[in-house]
Fold Antibiotic biosynthesis monooxygenase.
Amino acid sequence: MIIRSWRAIATSQAVIDEYIAHLQATTFREMAALDGNLGASLSKKPVGDKFELLYLSYWRDMDAVKLFAKGAPLEDAIVKESTQKRLESYDPKVEYFEVCASSATLPGQLNN
């Protein structure tokens, strides 16, 4: 399993709430329709008066990630314009990790 990670900065909980609504209405559904997508999560951490966001998506393999990227360079973050406007800043690049061991169960994924 592959984890695709991306970080951003939000200025308030209200911005995070808007972003969550956007994810649930569009991005999560679009990704769920892709073969090999195993889900995604958004986490937050207070940093001063702002929040660092960590977006993780879970993929069966890199071939599934390539379907999501639709030909874009795999290291480039795919950030919709509406999301760019919500966030104070975001990483233009993503990172990938191969899961070596896990106790978590994701849809379609056995524990490693």
